[in-house]
Design goal:
Keywords: Methyltransferase, Transferase
Shape: globular
CATH class: Alpha Beta
Order of helices and strands: HHHEHEHEHEHEHHEE
Organism: Nitratireductor indicus C115
Radius of gyration: 16 Å
Pfam families: Methyltransf_25
Helix content: 40-55%
InterPro entries: Methyltransf_25 (IPR041698), SAM-dependent_MTases_sf (IPR029063)
Largest sheet: 7 strands, mixed
Number of strands: 7
Oligomer: single chain
Strand order of the largest sheet: 3-2-1-4-5-7-6
GO biological process, one term: methylation
CATH superfamily: Vaccinia Virus protein VP39
Distance between the termini: 30 Å
Length: 218
């Protein structure tokens, strides 16, 4: 994504979330399924670093802090509006996390956080909103430490759900600039082949969502 495209996307996301950020977590819990399961399965080692790409309101980082109180937490988002909410929410809950505004497909972890890599990286329902989503996966894997894991949860193909439901869901998601990535599994398999990494890919709720874990070799 060019600097111009990044700026346009940042403005779009700020526009989308300028008001939604205030009630985002109340509404999303009903259809962003699988997030809590993914976080519970992160298995973060003592003192390890955890990065969320597309951290939004900070809701997920707060849950990570409750599950893994000794983890070092980091988050980035392209929307300054969402980051403002995240800063407030995390501070209110006493959660220590380093947050930064950046494009998830081109971020520089050392410049943003002073970190050369992370033991865990997760992406929750953000790839479906990021135009260069393939590049975001590659950037995450490049920043993952040897032996670390990348965890993804997002909308699936809805292949085992009624056609009317699938059509209606996708039309509704499109109004919020969300597009399920139907080739997600193939892209992840390709990235794993390049790195010699392993992939665990699960379809959840009759295809409504997917959950994937890439384990990077040591």
């Amino acid at each position: 994504m060019s600097a111009v495209d990044e700026s346009v996307h940042a403005q779009l996301m700020d526009g989308v979330y300028r008001r939604q950020r205030h009630f985002y977590d109340l509404t999303r819990k009903y259809y962003l399924l699988g997030r809590d399961r993914m976080i519970a399965e992160l298995a973060v080692p003592q003192g390890a670093s955890v990065l969320e790409l597309g951290c939004g309101t900070g809701r997920n980082l707060s849950l990570v802090a409750r599950h893994y109180p000794h983890a070092r937490l980091f988050g980035l988002d392209i929307s300054r509006q969402m980051l403002a909410t995240a800063q407030t929410q995390l501070a209110r809950e006493g959660v220590s996390a380093s947050l930064a505004q950046a494009d998830a497909s081109t971020f520089d972890a050392e410049r943003l956080f002073g970190e050369t890599g992370f033991e865990r990286i997760f992406i929750s329902y953000s790839l479906s909103m990021i135009p260069p989503w393939r590049e975001t996966i590659a950037a995450a894997l490049a920043t993952l430490r040897p032996g670390g894991s990348l965890h993804i949860v997002d909308f699936g193909r809805q292949e085992h759900l009624p056609c009317w439901f699938r059509t209606g869901l996708r039309q509704w998601l499109a109004a919020f600039h969300v597009a399920p990535r139907d080739s997600m599994r193939e892209v992840l398999e390709s990235e794993c082949e390049k790195l010699g990494a392993s992939l665990r890919f699960d379809s959840l709720f009759r295809g409504y969502a997917i959950k994937a874990v890439i384990q990077k070799p040591v």
